[in-house]
Amino acid sequence: MTPHLIEAAGLSIGYHGVELIKELNFGLQPGEFWAVIGPNGAGKTTLLRTVVGELRPIAGTVLLRGKAIHFHERRKIARIIGYVPQRMNINPFMRVEDYVMLGRYHRIGAFRRPSASDREVVKRAMSLTDTLHLRGRYMGEISMGELQRIRIARALAQEPELLVLDEPLVHLDPGHRFQLMEMLKKLSDGGMAIFAAVHDVETASLYATHVLLLGNGRYVRGEASEVLDSEHIEPLFDVRIGRYRGKIVLLPPD
């Protein structure tokens, strides 16, 4: 059987030996769009950092194509996984296009100049994220919403097979939120795996194929239609789930 693109096997995660989630098991295949959902402090960011190899698990293993991720070279990981964390250090005096080009570093190397094909990949990534008009601006001149889209463009410039995003909808206005989720869905339909931590349950329900729901030290995973229901969501977030034209709507508790 073909191994998962990435797999958590008996994974326990946390900081300084304090476990947030125990014995987590799941696997991602190409073309799947996973939303990681849970309240603040549930362990979403810790999980993402563990999945991409930044943190070592307390127990268990993260497997990348059937091999423990810490046995892969970082450059090889960057060819497979594009990671957009919540925060990154930004040089305000760097041009936007040069910043996105940093996503090509693992393919270009330290001493080769970007080729025409590298520039075409960057142009395509910026077009997908609606940032091409910003290419000549400096990083210190753009808004937070524009920065978020540019950071995603940089990850797409890696040409990854798996895109991991930590709260990608933060700082985006409603129009760009839907635009971004449409883009991610299109990428997953094209074969890319998506693994994104999100707070917006309603938006995630429209696009995600699978959900990993974290909370109170436990988890539920499965297809989005099975996990995003009143049984799982209402007690975790202290809300009520309603439906409007078949779509999830979150309502205040009674």
Overview of this protein structure:
The protein has a single domain (6-94, 160-251), classed as P-loop containing nucleotide triphosphate hydrolases (Rossmann fold, 3-Layer(aba) Sandwich), CATH 3.40.50. It is 34% helix and 28% strand. It has ten helices and twelve strands. It has helices at residues 44-51, 74-80, 96-101, 105-108, 116-128, 144-156, 174-189, 201-207, 224-227, 230-237, and strands spanning 6-15, 18-28, 33-37, 59-64, 67-68, 81-84, 162-166, 193-198, 210-215, 218-223, 240-244, 247-251. The strands form three sheets. It has a six-stranded mixed beta sheet with strand order 6-7-8-3-9-10, with helices on both faces. Strands 2-1-4-5 form a four-stranded antiparallel beta sheet, covered by helices on one side. The protein is globular. 37% of the residues are buried.
Order of helices and strands: EEEHEEHEHHHHEHEHEEHHEE
How much helicity do the residues have?
25-40%
CATH architecture: 3-Layer(aba) Sandwich
Mean pLDDT: 91
* Mass-distribution shape: globular
Number of helices: 10
Strand content: 25-35%
> Total number of β-strand segments?
12
Question: How is the secondary structure organized here?
Answer:
Blueprint: E1 6-15, E2 18-28, E3 33-37, H1 44-51, E4 59-64, E5 67-68, H2 74-80, E6 81-84, H3 96-101, H4 105-108, H5 116-128, H6 144-156, E7 162-166, H7 174-189, E8 193-198, H8 201-207, E9 210-215, E10 218-223, H9 224-227, H10 230-237, E11 240-244, E12 247-251
Helix pairs in contact: 5-6
